[in-house]
Amino acid sequence: MEAPPLTPSYSPTSLLIRHKNPSSVTTFSRSPNVKNRTNFSIHASSSADSVVTLLDYGAGNVRSVRNAIKFLGFEIKDVQTPEDILNASRLVFPGVGAFAPAMEVLSKTGMGEALCSYIEKDRPFLGICLGLQLLFESSEENGPIKGLGLIPGTVGRFDSSNGFRVPHIGWNALQIAKESEILDDVGNHHVYFVHSYRAMPSDDNKEWISSTCDYGDKFIASIKRGNVHAVQFHPEKSGDVGLSILRRFLYPKSNVAKKTGEGKASKLAKRVIACLDVRANDNGDLVVTKGDQYDVRENTKENEVRNLGKPVELAEQYYKDGADEVSFLNITGFRDFPLGDLPMLQVLRYTSENVFVPLTVGGGIRDFTDSQGRHYSSLEVAAEYFRSGADKISIGSDAVYAAEEYLRTGVKTGKTSLEQISRVYGNQAVVVSIDPRRVYINNPKDVQFQTIKVSSPGPNGEEYAWYQCTVNGGREGRPIGAYELAKAVEELGAGEILLNCIDCDGQGKGFDVDLIKFISDAVSIPVIASSGAGVPEHFSDVFTKTNASAALAAGIFHRKEVPIQTVKEHLLKEGIEVRI
Ligand code: 1PR
Question: Are 308 and 288 in contact (CB under 8 A)?
Answer without folding.
Answer: yes
